[in-house]
C-alpha cells in the first residue's frame, strides 16, 4: 500500500511583521495586529507581542500563531520554574538562550515562528535577539521578522548604519538614536510596509522598555487610499487658513507627503 | 501543499493500522457558524444541515450546544469530530462540577482547553476536522473566540467560520457596533445567514439562533428565512448575451 499523502497541512502562515530596535538605555519592540489566513483576514486586533515578565524581555513573533502561542506558553512555564529554582527573574540574554534551545528542541517538527526578542541586558543597555524558525540566533542592534521584513530590513540597515560585525574591537550595534526618534522610525517603517505588504496592516502595537518600566503605544495603520489624501488636504487647508502664506503652502504640500508616513495620531 | 505523514515505526503492519486510524478527509460536514457579541452577551447562528459531500444528507443537526453554565459552542466541519469534542467537554464539565467548590469553568477557560485539544491533535497528525466558535458570559464579561482545526485561535467581537468568514465577516465589520440590542443583533445575524443561504451551496434554509447571557443559554426553535428570487436580472439571465453564462 503506497504511503498516503495528507490533504491538509499542519502549518499555516498567519502573516504579520515584527520589529525591534535597541538603544543605549531603551528597547523598542513593535508588531502589527493583523492575523490572516490565505487571502482572508481573521482578526484586525491580534497581539503578536508577549511580555515574558523576565526582567523586561519582550518576545514578538510572526508566523503560525498556534505554534507561537504554544511557544509563548512553554517559555512562560520554563521561566516560572527558573524563578522557583534560582529565586530571581531570568535576564534577557538568558531568555534568549532558552528560546533558542526551545526552538531547536523541535528541530524535526519546527515551531513555525519567526521571533524577535527585545529587552535590556544586565547593564541596562538595550538588546535585540533575532531568530529563525529552528533556533539559530544572534544579538543585533535592530531586526525585522515576518512578512514585511524584506521591506523593512534594508531601510533599517540604511537608517541605523550598523557597524560591520567583522570590525575589531567588536563594536556595539546599539543605535545612538534617542527613544522618541527610534519610536518615530518604527512608525515610519510600518507605515511603509503596510503600503506594499498585504499581510501587514490594521494597527501597530509598540512596546517601549526602559529601566523604570514598559510603555505601550497603539497606532492606526493606513486603511484606504482616500484616507491618505484626506489627511494631506486637511493639513494644507489648516496651514493656509492659519498663516495665509503662499510659500508655506508649497512647503506644506511637500511636507504633507512625508508627514503622512509618520504617526497619524497627532494629525 | 501536500504533507507526507512522517511516521516510521519499522514495523510495517503497525504502520498500516496506525495510518488507517488517522483523519484523512471529512465525511459529514456542517457549514458556517456566525456569532456576534451584543449588549447582554453573545448571539450565534447556524443552519441545521449536515452534508455528505455534495449530498444534503441530514437536515436536523444541532451544531450549537451549551457547555457548562457559561459557554456556548458552535462547530462547523466534521460532525462526528464535533460529537467527540462534546464528549471531551462533558468530561471536563463533569470534573469541574465534582470539585463542588462554587467555581465554574468560564468561556475563556473552555476556549483555551479547546485550543489545546485541537493543537495537540494537529501535533499528532490526527486532527479534529472542525472550526469551533466559543461564546459565553461570565461575571458580566462577554467572550467570543474561534479555534481552527490546526489550533489557530483568537477572540474578537464577531467571528464566522468557513464561508461565513468570506461572506458574513465584511457585513459584520461594517454594521457591528458595541451594545447591539437583541433585536438588532438577530437582524444582523439573519442578514448574514440570508447571504450565506443565497451563496453557499451547502447551506440550507433551516436555521437556529442561540443566545447566551448571564442567565444562561437559549437555543431557538428552527425556522426559515424569507428569500426573494424574483430579481429581474435572474428572470431571464441570458437575455443580454445569448450563449454566455
Automatic annotation (TrEMBL), chain A:
Pfam family, one: Proteasome
InterPro entries: Ntn_hydrolases_N, Proteasome_sua/b, Proteasome_suB-type
Cellular localization per UniProt: Nucleus
UniProt keyword annotations, A-Z: Cytoplasm, Proteasome
Domain of life where this protein originates: Eukaryota
Protein name: Proteasome subunit beta
Species annotation: Brassica napus
From TrEMBL, chain B:
Top-level taxon of origin: Eukaryota
Any one Pfam family match given in the protein's UniProt record, by short name: Proteasome
Keyword entries, A-Z: Cytoplasm, Nucleus, Proteasome
GO cellular component: cytosol; nucleus; proteasome core complex, beta-subunit complex
GO biological process: proteasome-mediated ubiquitin-dependent protein catabolic process
Protein localization: Cytoplasm; Nucleus
UniProt function note: Non-catalytic component of the proteasome.
Subunit structure: Component of the 20S core complex of the 26S proteasome. The 26S proteasome is composed of a core protease (CP), known as the 20S proteasome, capped at one or both ends by the 19S regulatory particle (RP/PA700). The 20S proteasome core is composed of 28 subunits that are arranged in four stacked rings, resulting in a barrel-shaped structure. The two end rings are each formed by seven alpha subunits, and the two central rings are each formed by seven beta subunits. The catalytic chamber with the active sites is on the inside of the barrel.
Name assigned to this protein: Proteasome subunit beta
Gene this protein is translated from: BnaA09g16030D
